[in-house]
Amino acid sequence: EEVRRRDFINIAAVSFAGMGAVAVVVPLIDQMNPSADVLALASTEVDLSAIQPGQAIKTTFRSQPLFVRHLTPKEIAEADKVDVATLRDPQTLEERTVDGKKQWLITMGVCTHLGCVPLGAGEGENRGEYGGYFCPCHGSSYDTAARIRKGPAPKNLEVPEFKFTSDTAILVG
Ligand code: FES
Fold it and tell me: Predicted ipTM?
Protein backbone atom coordinates (compact mmCIF):
# COMPACT_ATOMS: atom_id res chain seq x y z
CA GLU A 1 0.00 0.00 0.00
CA GLU A 2 2.61 2.42 1.19
CA VAL A 3 4.84 1.87 -1.85
CA ARG A 4 2.01 2.22 -4.33
CA ARG A 5 0.92 5.56 -2.96
CA ARG A 6 4.44 6.87 -3.21
CA ASP A 7 4.64 5.72 -6.82
CA PHE A 8 1.43 7.52 -7.59
CA ILE A 9 2.75 10.70 -6.05
CA ASN A 10 5.98 10.41 -8.07
CA ILE A 11 4.09 9.85 -11.31
CA ALA A 12 1.81 12.80 -10.58
CA ALA A 13 4.80 15.02 -9.94
CA VAL A 14 6.46 13.97 -13.20
CA SER A 15 3.29 14.58 -15.21
CA PHE A 16 2.93 18.01 -13.73
CA ALA A 17 6.52 18.89 -14.64
CA GLY A 18 5.88 17.58 -18.15
CA MET A 19 2.82 19.75 -18.60
CA GLY A 20 4.72 22.77 -17.37
CA ALA A 21 7.38 22.25 -20.02
CA VAL A 22 4.78 21.89 -22.78
CA ALA A 23 3.05 25.08 -21.73
CA VAL A 24 6.32 27.00 -22.14
CA VAL A 25 7.22 25.49 -25.52
CA VAL A 26 3.86 25.85 -27.29
CA PRO A 27 3.74 29.67 -27.43
CA LEU A 28 7.20 29.75 -29.03
CA ILE A 29 6.13 27.31 -31.75
CA ASP A 30 2.97 29.36 -32.34
CA GLN A 31 5.00 32.45 -33.05
CA MET A 32 7.16 30.67 -35.60
CA ASN A 33 4.22 29.20 -37.56
CA PRO A 34 1.73 31.91 -38.45
CA SER A 35 -1.76 30.45 -38.51
CA ALA A 36 -3.64 29.91 -41.76
CA ASP A 37 -5.71 33.08 -41.40
CA VAL A 38 -2.60 35.20 -40.84
CA LEU A 39 -1.02 33.72 -43.99
CA ALA A 40 -4.23 34.31 -45.96
CA LEU A 41 -4.00 38.01 -45.20
CA ALA A 42 -0.31 38.36 -46.00
CA SER A 43 0.51 40.56 -48.97
CA THR A 44 3.76 40.97 -50.85
CA GLU A 45 5.22 44.23 -52.17
CA VAL A 46 7.33 43.93 -55.31
CA ASP A 47 9.71 46.60 -56.60
CA LEU A 48 9.48 46.65 -60.40
CA SER A 49 12.13 49.29 -61.09
CA ALA A 50 14.98 46.89 -61.90
CA ILE A 51 13.01 44.50 -64.14
CA GLN A 52 13.80 45.37 -67.77
CA PRO A 53 11.47 44.61 -70.72
CA GLY A 54 11.94 40.93 -71.57
CA GLN A 55 12.99 40.08 -68.03
CA ALA A 56 11.11 38.37 -65.22
CA ILE A 57 11.75 37.62 -61.59
CA LYS A 58 10.64 34.81 -59.32
CA THR A 59 9.52 35.72 -55.85
CA THR A 60 6.98 34.26 -53.44
CA PHE A 61 3.44 35.11 -52.45
CA ARG A 62 1.81 33.27 -49.55
CA SER A 63 4.57 30.64 -49.66
CA GLN A 64 4.09 29.91 -53.37
CA PRO A 65 6.20 30.95 -56.37
CA LEU A 66 5.18 34.21 -58.01
CA PHE A 67 6.35 35.34 -61.46
CA VAL A 68 6.65 39.05 -62.18
CA ARG A 69 7.32 39.69 -65.85
CA HIS A 70 7.97 42.84 -67.88
CA LEU A 71 6.69 42.08 -71.37
CA THR A 72 8.29 43.60 -74.46
CA PRO A 73 6.09 45.40 -77.03
CA LYS A 74 6.56 42.34 -79.27
CA GLU A 75 5.36 39.96 -76.54
CA ILE A 76 2.32 42.18 -75.91
CA ALA A 77 1.54 42.21 -79.65
CA GLU A 78 1.86 38.41 -79.81
CA ALA A 79 -0.58 38.00 -76.93
CA ASP A 80 -3.03 40.53 -78.41
CA LYS A 81 -3.17 38.98 -81.87
CA VAL A 82 -4.45 35.62 -80.58
CA ASP A 83 -8.13 34.91 -81.25
CA VAL A 84 -9.39 34.47 -77.69
CA ALA A 85 -12.19 32.15 -78.87
CA THR A 86 -9.57 29.54 -79.78
CA LEU A 87 -8.14 29.42 -76.24
CA ARG A 88 -8.73 26.65 -73.73
CA ASP A 89 -9.14 29.25 -70.97
CA PRO A 90 -10.27 32.35 -72.91
CA GLN A 91 -8.88 35.61 -71.53
CA THR A 92 -7.27 38.65 -73.08
CA LEU A 93 -3.94 40.04 -71.88
CA GLU A 94 -5.88 43.17 -70.87
CA GLU A 95 -8.10 41.07 -68.59
CA ARG A 96 -5.03 39.45 -67.06
CA THR A 97 -3.31 42.74 -66.22
CA VAL A 98 -4.45 45.90 -64.41
CA ASP A 99 -4.78 49.63 -65.12
CA GLY A 100 -4.05 49.13 -68.82
CA LYS A 101 -0.42 48.35 -67.93
CA LYS A 102 -0.27 45.29 -70.13
CA GLN A 103 3.52 45.13 -69.87
CA TRP A 104 3.30 43.92 -66.24
CA LEU A 105 2.26 40.27 -66.20
CA ILE A 106 1.92 39.01 -62.64
CA THR A 107 1.11 35.31 -62.20
CA MET A 108 1.54 32.47 -59.79
CA GLY A 109 4.48 30.26 -60.79
CA VAL A 110 2.40 27.14 -60.34
CA CYS A 111 1.42 24.96 -63.31
CA THR A 112 -2.35 24.42 -63.33
CA HIS A 113 -1.86 20.75 -64.25
CA LEU A 114 -0.22 19.23 -61.18
CA GLY A 115 1.51 22.19 -59.61
CA CYS A 116 5.10 22.09 -60.87
CA VAL A 117 6.98 25.38 -61.21
CA PRO A 118 7.16 26.24 -64.92
CA LEU A 119 10.38 27.47 -66.56
CA GLY A 120 10.68 30.87 -68.20
CA ALA A 121 11.00 33.39 -65.40
CA GLY A 122 14.70 32.75 -64.80
CA GLU A 123 17.44 34.11 -67.07
CA GLY A 124 17.94 31.85 -70.08
CA GLU A 125 15.25 29.34 -69.14
CA ASN A 126 13.17 27.56 -71.78
CA ARG A 127 10.00 29.60 -72.41
CA GLY A 128 8.42 26.98 -74.65
CA GLU A 129 7.09 27.28 -78.18
CA TYR A 130 4.62 30.07 -77.29
CA GLY A 131 7.28 32.24 -75.68
CA GLY A 132 5.79 32.47 -72.20
CA TYR A 133 6.42 29.64 -69.77
CA PHE A 134 7.14 25.95 -70.19
CA CYS A 135 6.34 23.30 -67.61
CA PRO A 136 8.91 20.51 -67.88
CA CYS A 137 6.89 18.04 -65.81
CA HIS A 138 4.45 17.06 -68.58
CA GLY A 139 5.11 19.65 -71.27
CA SER A 140 2.53 22.38 -70.81
CA SER A 141 3.30 25.51 -72.84
CA TYR A 142 2.00 28.93 -71.86
CA ASP A 143 2.03 32.02 -74.09
CA THR A 144 3.27 35.56 -73.41
CA ALA A 145 0.08 36.27 -71.41
CA ALA A 146 0.77 33.03 -69.45
CA ARG A 147 -2.29 31.43 -71.04
CA ILE A 148 -2.26 27.68 -71.57
CA ARG A 149 -1.73 26.84 -75.24
CA LYS A 150 -0.49 23.25 -75.35
CA GLY A 151 -0.12 20.29 -73.01
CA PRO A 152 -2.26 18.92 -70.20
CA ALA A 153 -2.74 22.02 -68.02
CA PRO A 154 -6.44 23.02 -67.95
CA LYS A 155 -6.12 26.71 -67.00
CA ASN A 156 -3.97 29.78 -67.53
CA LEU A 157 -1.40 30.56 -64.84
CA GLU A 158 -3.38 32.20 -62.06
CA VAL A 159 -3.25 35.98 -61.78
CA PRO A 160 -3.36 36.91 -58.09
CA GLU A 161 -5.06 40.08 -56.91
CA PHE A 162 -2.63 42.98 -57.07
CA LYS A 163 -2.52 46.74 -57.45
CA PHE A 164 0.03 49.37 -58.32
CA THR A 165 1.20 51.37 -55.31
CA SER A 166 3.38 53.58 -57.53
CA ASP A 167 4.68 53.52 -61.12
CA THR A 168 7.35 51.06 -60.07
CA ALA A 169 5.80 48.97 -57.30
CA ILE A 170 2.91 46.59 -56.82
CA LEU A 171 1.19 45.13 -53.79
CA VAL A 172 0.09 41.53 -54.31
CA GLY A 173 -2.74 40.18 -52.16
FE1 FES B 1 2.91 21.15 -65.44
FE2 FES B 1 2.01 18.63 -65.48
S3 FES B 1 2.52 19.84 -63.76
S4 FES B 1 2.46 19.93 -67.15
Answer: 0.99
